[in-house]
Amino acid sequence: MKFPGRRKLKHYFPVSSPKPQLPSFEVRPELDTYVVGLDQTIVDVLANVSDEFLQKYGIGKGLSNLVEHGKADQIYQELVQSAAISDHFAGGTIGNTIHNYSVLADDKSVLLGVMSANIALGSPAYHYLCHTSSKVDMNHLHGVAGDIGRGITMITPDGERTFVIDPGAMDELSADAIPEDIIAKAAALVLSAYPLRASGQPIQQAMFRTLELAKRHGVPVVMSLGTKHLVEEHRELILSTVRDYVDMLAMNELEAAALTGITDPLQAAEAALELTDMVLVTAGPEGLYLCGYTDASARRETTNPIKSGALPDYNEFEFSRPMQKKHCVDPMKVYSHIDPYLGGPERIKNTNGAGDGALAAILHDIAANHFHRHALPLSSKHEQSYLAYSSFAQICKYANRVSYAILNQSAPRLSRGLPEKEDSLEEAYWER
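The line above is the sequence of Guanosine-inosine kinase; the predicted structure tokens follow.
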């Protein structure tokens, strides 16, 4: 029979070739390169409502309202019945990051968190699975009896956004559900500061067990700070956690100011380097900063125009590759900055997730370094114990490009990778 579609000009089933091994969707620690993320699993719901609807349920307009599960479910069911819901998105800052990493790398990642043991059609868990890449291994999620978290964004006719947060069972991740073998062989572990506010909940103990395992096995730890208010409320706990466990910190300029007390993003990043080895600060229309350490013997001068701001000539050595400070004989701080890609989208459709997209790009570069080091350990690329494969400047370009892709769409998760060939304007950008 003739098969439909276009085929290469060779026998479609070569009988002389050995049968290929079927692909495995589950991560194999000894064979695969992957990153691990720990998150509070939550689904974001977008709905259009009236002011009367908010008053009926006693919801504070324009605020973030933490609502008990029974009341939140009643609100959700009425939204469903009145066809007020416009969309569902799988949420969570680390869930977004892990998904985007797998889309960019076209490779596996592992998500740790909770998932409803019984998934009904249309439930939060159902929508979470539907909007997550098949490359994300969710076989290690911890089954719970209840629903995962649900965040309802209610938009009134005046455009005001009001939030209803239903935690569900998202904080019930047990420390016993953290698989040591998966953590031990990971290229990186990524998590957010959100579980630090879940005082007395199982997920906080699970988070610290995960951090301890990563530290024991020498796995780089990347932390996203979450929100400015979270940092302000739990600053001391966040500071101690970063000092003890974190190798890279990701935050926006408001979170950086709340953490360090410094409003200038570059100076805040410099101060954060006293806590950790690498810092990403996204600063909205100002672009993004990537800062870290390298050994003085491995420093490389930039050929880009020299920039001065709060620090003079701060990007002079941005062609250097990132290293952990403990691996440097003579550590020196390196700073890089990039303006928004192509000036930013003509129309920003969504700001949620732009920082998560940038972080996914950096994780991809860290994972690429991990893969190359194991595949070609004698390569000159590994004469030093580098944390990432590319230079600070090149990582900035990649992170910036992914942020643009997120800002240019309506959802925080990429549906596909970046285009393989950019148009002429974009090619000129990459050549700069």
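Note on the example: The chain is about 30% helix and 20% strand. The domain at 35-40+91-149+168-431 is CATH 3.40.1190.20 (UDP-N-acetylmuramoyl-L-alanine:D-glutamate ligase).
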